[in-house]
Amino acid sequence: MDINYELYKVFYHVAKTLSFSEAAGILFISQSAVSQSIKVLEKRLDVSLFTRSTKRVALTKEGELLFKHIEPAVNLIDRGESQLLSSAKTGSVQLRIAASDTICRYYLVPYLKHFHLLYPDVHLRVINGTSLRCAELLEAGEADLIVANSPNPALTNTMRLHEVKTFFDVFIANPEYFPLGGRRLSLKDLQQLPILMLSKRSTTSVFLHNLFLQHSLELAPAIELSSNDLLIDFARIGLGIAFVPDFCVAGANRNGLVLLETNEPMPERKLIAACDGTLPLPEPADHFIRLLEHDIKPSCSAPENGDGSEK
Questions:
Q1: Which residues, including other chains, have CB under 8 Å from residue 107's CB and lie 6 or more apart?
Q2: What is the pLDDT of residues 237-270, one digit of tens each?
Q3: Which CA distances in Å does 121 have to 61, 86, 95, 249, 250?
Q4: pLDDT per residue over 117-134, tens digit each?
Q5: Residue 73: its pLDDT value, please?
Q6: How far apart are CA 285 and CA 160, in angstroms?
Q7: Closest CA relative to residue 7, chosen from 80, 70, 82, 77
């Protein structure tokens, strides 16, 4: 069907803002032109895309379906235009990587450093968000590559996944406040202790709650935060037992904290690099994934201070 791209562009902005007037302002055209474009598109597709009333505009089911496909297409075109303009002005291209603060700080820093040394003309843009949010950014075309933990319910079957690291989660405590060293604790034992963990909008929280449910136990954390570093700090001052990825408390960063042994083995989790499997992989993203897969990085340890935000 031969439909002018400009009609889809108008539809995209109306669907995103749910406002004919806001879309008109973004596109620098009149509101009547926006309305006319939508009417033409609806006529050519032979469907109603919006329900209109005096107070609000809403997508119909057909409109929602179309928007689901149009949004990543528009983002892809915008990304291509931005890269071309950036390349024309600076001679460089951009690589947008989304990852949580924790993954950036404790895992990605040396790879980012090495990539920058190898490809100084590639502008790195790092976007922070939970692993759930990063998957959403990738699906919306707002990131070229994400590094997130798995399992992750926000990952879709249209994404190309590359396993780059395995890890285990651990419970840590200050033995001065919780002298539990040498004991093997069951999840039921841990249920009676003040658990410090990431907030519900994180894959780590989903993972731990599901683990307890698998053993017919309900988890009621004492404190929920958005930072793994704060969880470690709170455990250090005796506020409870923190649940964090093992790579956050490796070596000197443990600093007096002890790992608690559990009767139930902690399931292994993975860090994955993911990209949109429906699109050609940008060359910079391919190079970065290769660094991760082959563990190519210079000697570079994590900084002593940082946010360590949720994963």
A1: 147, 165, 247, 271
A2: 999 999 999 999 987 667 889 999 999 889 999 9
A3: 44, 11, 11, 34, 33
A4: 999 988 899 999 999 999
A5: 81
A6: 12
A7: 70
SS (H, E, C) 174-212: CCCCCCCCCCEECHHHHHCCCEEEECCCCHHHHHHHHHH
Closest by CA to 148, choosing from 191, 207, 76, is 207
Residue 77 to residue 195: CA distance in whole angstroms: 46
Please tell me the least confidently modeled range out of 68-82, 150-164, 248-262.
68-82
Give the model's pLDDT for residue 53.
Answer: 79
Alpha helices by DSSP H, listed for the chain, are 5-17, 20-27, 31-45, 61-90, 101-103, 109-118, 131-139, 187-191, 203-214, 228-236, 283-293
Distance CA 288, CA 115 (A): 7
> Which one-letter DSSP state was computed for residue 301?
P
The rounded distance, in Å, linking the Cα atoms of 64 and 70 is 10
Q: Which amino acid is at 259?
A: L
Q: With beta carbons less than 8 A apart as the criterion, state whether 147 and 292 touch.
A: yes
Q: How far apart are CA 198 and CA 243, in angstroms?
A: 8
* pTM score above 0.85: no
Query: Beta-carbon neighbour count of residue 58 at 10 Å?
Result: 12
Say how far residue 41 (Cα) sits from the centre of its chain. 34
Question: Is residue 235 within 8 Å of 257, Cβ to Cβ?
Answer: yes
The helix (run of H) or strand (run of E) holding residue 261 is strand 258-262
What distance in Å separates the CA atoms of residue 170 and residue 48, rounded to the nearest whole number? 53
